């Protein structure tokens, strides 16, 4: 007989889900979805953020990064300083920098809709 010791801390809900998946695996039952699975939108945003950071670390301007991420056709010739793609590109680079500086650990913590990064 196997046992699971679960501390009663702020991660109890995730631990319970993981323990249930472990029990289902032991009993050769379908596992269900992982407790910390990221949505498709979140995964796409992480990929864009890391690609943006790669471009930034290579010395590219935010305009060049945006052209690479979103296509040159979507980046305006004028009005770049106030364009939403410029702001979005800057936020992507900042998000990736936070991940590189240790924020990747946040991916291992369950976040509700109130705590998600909306940018």
Description:
By secondary structure, the chain is mainly alpha-helical. The chain is 50% helix and 0% strand. Helix 3 (62-70) packs across helix 4 (84-100). The chain has a domain at 40-113.
Tags for this model:
4 helices, mainly alpha, 50% helix, 119 residues
Q: Helical content, roughly?
A: 40-55%
What would you report as the Rg, rounded to the nearest angstrom? 20 Å
What form results from the Cα inertia axes?
Answer: elongated
In terms of DSSP E residues, the strand content is: under 5%
* Spatial gap, N to C terminus: 47 Å
Number of continuous helical runs: 4
Low-confidence stretches: 113-119
The tally of strands reads 0
Order of helices and strands: HHHH
Describe the main β-sheet briefly: none
Q: Quaternary status of these chains?
A: single chain
Give the integer mean of the pLDDT values: 86
Summarize the topology.
Layout: H1 12-26, H2 40-57, H3 62-70, H4 84-100
Helix pairs in contact: 2-3, 2-4, 3-4
Summarize the structure.
This protein is mainly alpha-helical and 119 residues long. It has helices spanning 12-26, 40-57, 62-70, 84-100.
């Amino acid at each position: 007989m196997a046992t699971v010791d679960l501390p009663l801390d702020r991660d109890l809900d995730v631990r319970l889900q993981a323990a249930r998946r472990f029990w289902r695996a032991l009993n050769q039952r379908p596992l269900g979805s992982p407790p910390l699975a990221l949505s498709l939108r979140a995964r796409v945003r992480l990929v864009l953020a890391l690609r943006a950071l790669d471009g930034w670390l290579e010395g590219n301007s935010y305009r060049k990064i945006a052209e690479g991420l979103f296509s040159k056709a979507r980046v305006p010739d004028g009005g770049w300083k106030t364009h939403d793609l410029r702001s979005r590109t800057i936020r992507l680079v900042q998000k990736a920098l936070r991940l590189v500086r240790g924020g990747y650990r946040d991916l291992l913590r369950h976040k509700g809709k109130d705590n998600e990064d909306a940018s």
